[in-house]
Design a protein that fits this description.
Helices cover about 60% and strands about 15% of the residues. It has about 325 residues and is of the alpha+beta class. The protein folds into 2 domains: about 110 residues; about 220 residues, GAF domain (Beta-Lactamase). A 6-stranded antiparallel β-sheet has the order 3-2-1-6-5-4, sandwiched between helices. The longest helix has about 80 residues. It starts with a helix and ends with a helix.
Length: about 325
């Protein structure tokens, strides 16, 4: 919409110029003076208008700069607040998980059954729980990255991998020949993909396995970092750049993702220094845009919150096995 005040100023200037020009024609002996006055008024008017517009524009630039500064401060405070909520939320579930494990170890057993060989009913319940956890985690990460200006759309995958004792492999995988059994017994534990978020599973069911392949903990950089070195997080936003430093026995990993974050599903007893590992929770993305997606702050807290919930579920499952065993006696 046009600003009416500039139309009024333009009309007034035109009328004054016309009036002075008419006077010059009517009073020819004063024509030179009147025309000079007219031109001087036009010059002064244009100069004043130019200065006014320059000053106004400068003030607008200052206001915009102040607005952008205030906006950045506001956004920084908002991101800080959200980051704190991720941390507080994780801390709350973390302490609840610790309480459950401490009670179990003190009053039930310090040997927590972490076998992934669930009975049919337990397996069904586990998958239902994983469905909720992975879909909520997927949605949370998508929303978080979008708000941070890094939209991924569907380029995000959530995976739950479980530790499985060598003695349980044959039962879990079915038929295993003697040669495979010898190879399996070389390790006390293996890693197996227990669950993928439903969207990833449906989209890549022929490319990304679930429950079919055994992974050696020592032959994977992330597994090493989490399960052997007992770190709380592993992440990298450009795995290809690591070259041979990054170990992964999946020959197709480079086609499936280039950014990853991994956290443990476990309980750690600070008093004894003992770890009770169940598995790992991972999020990955192809990330063709080269975003700095994952970090050891917000993203770690988001995943660790879900990992602690999984640890509590597995603790409850172990508790349930003991209760059922007691009931059968």
């Amino acid at each position: 919409m046009r600003n009416i005040k500039w139309d009024i100023i333009s009309c007034i200037a035109s009328v004054l110029g016309l009036l002075l020009s008419s006077l010059a024609l009517g009073f020819s002996h004063y024509a030179g003076t009147l025309l000079l006055v007219r031109d001087m008024l036009i010059f002064i008017g244009l100069f004043s208008l130019t200065m006014f517009l320059l000053i106004k524009n400068k003030m607008n630039v200052i206001k915009i700069a102040e607005y952008e500064k205030d906006k950045q401060i506001y956004l920084k405070n908002i991101y800080s607040f959200i980051s704190d909520q991720f941390k507080y939320s994780h801390n709350a579930i973390h302490e609840l998980r610790n309480y459950g494990f401490l009670y179990y170890i003190k009053y039930i057993s310090d040997n927590i059954n972490m076998s992934f060989n669930f009975k049919k009913e337990d397996r069904s319940n586990f998958e239902k729980y994983c469905h909720v956890i992975t879909m909520q985690l997927r949605w949370t990460l998508q929303s978080y990255f979008e708000k941070k200006g890094m939209p991924l759309n569907e380029d995000i995958a959530i995976t739950i991998k479980m530790i499985i004792p060598s003695k349980d492999v044959a039962v879990l995988l079915g038929t295993v020949n003697s040669e495979q059994l010898v190879k399996i017994s070389d390790r006390d534990y293996w890693i197996i993909t227990a669950y993928r978020d439903p969207i990833t599973f449906e989209k890549y069911k022929n490319e990304r396995d679930v429950g079919k392949v055994l992974y050696d903990i020592k032959s994977n950089t992330a597994f090493n970092h989490i399960l052997l070195a007992n770190n709380s997080c592993y992440f990298c936003n450009d795995l290809q750049a690591l070259g041979v430093i990054y170990m992964n026995k999946n020959p197709n990993w480079g086609e499936q993702y280039n950014s990853v974050i991994v956290v443990p599903i476990r309980y750690y007893d600070k008093d004894t220094g003992k770890h009770y590992p169940f598995g790992i929770l991972a999020a990955d993305s192809k990330n063709p845009q080269g975003y700095q997606l994952f970090d050891e702050k917000d993203c770690k807290n988001i995943l660790a919150h879900s990992a602690d919930m999984l640890a509590m579920y597995l603790l409850n499952t172990a508790w349930s096995k003991i209760s059922r065993g007691s009931d059968n006696e």
